[in-house]
Amino acid sequence: MYYLQLLINGLVAGSVYALFAVGLTLVYGVFRFINFAHGELITWGAYGVLLFMAPPLGLSLGWALVPACLLAVALGLACDRLVYQPLRQSDRVTLLIASIGLSFFLRSALQFIFGADLTSYPLGLARGFSWGELSITGVQLAMVACAVIFLGGLFLLLTRTRLGKALRAVSDNPELAGIMGLPLKQVGWTVWGLASLFAAAGGILLGMDTSLDPFMGLANLIKAFAAVLLGGAGNVWGALLGGLFIGVAENLSVAVLSPGYKDFVAFAVIVVILLLRPQGIFALAGSGGVR
């Protein structure tokens, strides 16, 4: 039962890591660079709830969720418009350095506004659901449910809508997609909006289950990066599986390691994948762009 409980905890954590990883791989699949500022969108989404709960707005926790997500989406779109678009034709190293610098800027701004101390949402104590020796909290159920809803919505968008098909076409060949008259700007806004929304939603869910920390985005960016490497860059469903794998692996590691070393698992996965299979374990042979 102990290992089954660890597995359940791992699937719950992995569902949130999947949200982070899918957003990260969406951006890479279309724009071909790793956005290191993605972690700060996670943090801003989580802290955005506190921002809208504070005076003068004073919204309740439930009402603050939507504007917090919209804040993160607006922030992601602004980052693209003000920083990444002017550098779109530059080499990948330039974009990488820009994203790292932007990450430091967003983290410093957040610390200036909210401070550097740990904080949490005013949720209070809630009783979980128990089945024998197994237990799960309402927040954890909400984490899994939200991940299923968001990822299910993404699946429908990519497979059932013209915009989703255009997004996949642009990720395969941007030049040809432009020649064919596909809406490149609309696709770009959609990608950044979805990536920011997934980051914010995951950050909020994680904050409800644990606590808020200005560096929470950085720690979870590493896990998202490991999940992307597992799934193959640009492979949305590979990133989903990678996120679940990272969540399960780090929680099962508690059986043999101190809980303080859980984050070591993501670093170990990154090193092993880069050495043995850089294209990713779940990567599709010959695939490129968003899949």
What features would you describe in this structure?
- By secondary structure, the protein is mainly α.
- It has helices at residues 2-31, 38-53, 61-84, 92-114, 138-160, 162-172, 174-179, 184-209, 216-231, 236-252, 264-276; strands at 129-131, 134-136.
- The protein has one domain: ABC transporter involved in vitamin B12 uptake, BtuC (Orthogonal Bundle).
- The protein has 11 helices and 2 strands.
- The chain has a two-stranded antiparallel sheet with strand order 1-2.
- The chain is globular and about 60 Å long.
- The model has no long low-confidence stretch (mean pLDDT 89).
Short description:
70% of the residues lie in helices and 2% in strands. It has 291 residues and is mainly α.
Q: What's the overall average pLDDT, rounded? A: 89
Largest sheet strand order: 1-2
Sheet with the most strands, sense and barrel status: 2 strands, antiparallel
| Rg value | 19 Å
